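hi! just following up on the protien thing from before. the input was this:
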Amino acid sequence: MERLKQRWGLTSNFQVSIILLVFAITGSTAAFISKPILSSIGIERGVTNSFLYWILYVLIIFPIYKVILICIGTLFGQHTFFWNFVKKMLTRCGLGFIYPKKEKQRQ
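and the predicted 3d structure came back as:
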C-alpha cells in the first residue's frame, strides 16, 4: 500500500482502497456493457470470426472504460485523480493531442 500511496501521491490507505475499488467496478462494468453494444450492431461471439470479435471488443472497451472510470471515480469523490489518470493513459497511447500539456508562461 505504501508504494501505491507514494506513486499516486495519495495520503491515506482509505483513499487507495477507494481507488482500487473504482478500478475493479469500472473494469467489470466496461466488459459487461461492451457485449450488448457489439450484439446490437450484429457482432456476436459465436457467429463472427473470433479474431475480429476480440479486436472489436477491445476497441469498444477502450473508450467506454475511460468514460466509466471518470464517472464512477467522481461518484466516489476521486474525480481529480481519475481525470489525471485518463489524461496520462491517453498520452501514453499516443493520443496526447486530445489533452495537450499546458506550456509554462514566460515571465
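The chain has a mean pLDDT of 85.
The radius of gyration is 17 Å.
cheers
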